[in-house]
Amino acid sequence: MNHSDPFTLAGRTYSSRLLVGTGKYKDFDETRQAIQASGAEIITVAIRRTNIGQNTNEPSLLDYLPPSQYTILPNTAGCYTAEDAVRTLRLARELLDGHTLVKLEVLGDQGNLFPNMPATLEAAKTLVKDGFEVMVYCTDDPIQCRMLEDIGCVAIMPLASLIGSGMGILNPWNLRLIIDQSSVPVLVDAGVGTASDAAIAMELGCDAILMNTAIAGAKNPVLMASAMNLAVMAGRSAYLAGRVPRKFYSADPSSPTEGLLQPKS
Description:
By secondary structure, the protein is an alpha/beta fold. It is built from eight helices and ten strands. Helix 2 (82-95) packs parallel to helix 3, helix 3 (117-129) packs parallel to helix 4 and helix 6 packs parallel to helix 8.
């Protein structure tokens, strides 16, 4: 199904609608195995936490997940100001030979990791003007999501619940408002805990999902990565198929009622 229903992002086409992070695994080998099981083609990397060449004397993630096989999506995890986020992504562009597709996140609180939206908007304006293709982690506020799209961001990434919480989709109505108004891809980013959460997000009409903790924090990350792959495809298929309408206080039998044999009087 996924090969006949491609996902287009910033003018490039992908078969998988699952994007995955590379943090929190026990080692780079487990990271590689989980990414392979997920079927993901886009992987996000926290530039401030993961070595992709900054430290020449340490193992590099790119030795296990080479850019020739995956689209590397640098992100600004751990940045709390617009200036730090812009500086981090400019460094990533140098390390990745001019790569411009990036994930922006500017956090506002160390406890809940909620985005600082004024700083996010400021950084997005700077990065777009600087030639970056910006995917942006944000709140589920439809007004601010529209502002980010107007700035020129290539994808809007509202949280479903707090980063790493595993609480699932707590805001389906806000997500639908954002999906319905957006002309760029909308991806759930943060909060997915298990495969059913991923399916629900896709059934709502999200274009894709980005997750990390739900896979890396599972007891069996490789098996969970495979489950998430299937859930995203199932949820997307269900969305395209169109569910039956909900009928409250009424029933509709599966078997036809016309032409039934009538008892003799």
